[in-house]
Amino acid sequence: MSNNNKGRGFGGKGYYIALILCAAVIGITGYVYYRNLQEPQEVLMEETIPEILSAGTISRDEVMEAIATEAKTEPPQTPLITQEQDSQPVSAPQTLKTQSPIQGEEICGYSMEALSYNQTTRDWRVHNGVDIAAETGREVCAAADGKVYTVYEDDAMGCTVVIRHDGGYTTRYSSLAEELTVKAGDEVKAGQVIGYVGDTALVETTLGTHVHFGVTCQGEPMDPAEFLALGQ
Ligand SMILES: [Zn+2]
């Protein structure tokens, strides 16, 4: 009886030792499996390198260096092709001085969000500038320092001068007389005469003689009143 008890006692201790050994084996197996999961790329690379080496004259060191470089290469954070448009800052430069191109009554306001009725074309449309009434022949001035970008005869808006300014702004003067005092490429100062009031805007003839004055910022229409307020 006592031997049996002793044997049972020893058997119980052995059972625990076997259990610990099993746990250790499972643990080691799991760790090895985990390591294999962690290094699949290295295994793959080791398999493919002999093929690369046998295919050409490239050395093993060069292959390893190329692989290391490839691994470090990250996709570019910014697009490789960038638009080279008016990338100047939107805010007005400190030196920008503005003034109205001509003194007179505003007879049609800026309206890009709401349609306004056009008496000449008898339809509803947006108005990308302000119309300032003035007698034919009066001087029209540059609204700020800048450079004349273009001078042209617009089918709808008549004789037109476009000036570019610092800060990504352009000013546009339409319905001018055909006789102008500037040409494309000229540097102009605020207040410098660029032309004279005419009556050439075919879509605005019912307004009488006036200047159509429009402004864009980074290519987008803006309220001329806001532009004039920048330099005051
Ligand atoms: Zn107008």
Q: How many runs of DSSP E, i.e. beta strands?
A: 12
Question: What is the count of structural domains?
Answer: 2
Second-tier CATH architecture of the largest domain: Distorted Sandwich
Which parts are unreliable, with pLDDT below 50 for 5 consecutive residues or more?
Answer: 1-7, 36-53, 69-88
List keywords for this structure.
232 residues; alpha+beta; Glucose Permease (Domain IIA); 12 strands; elongated; disordered N terminus; binds zinc ion
Structure in words:
It is built from four helices and twelve strands. With 232 residues, it is α+β, with helices and mostly antiparallel strands. Strands 1, 4, 5, 6, 7, 8, 9, 10, 11 and 12 form a ten-stranded antiparallel sheet that branches. Helix 2 crosses helix 3. The protein is elongated and about 115 Å long. The N and C termini lie far apart (113 Å). It binds zinc ion. Zinc ion binds next to strand 4.
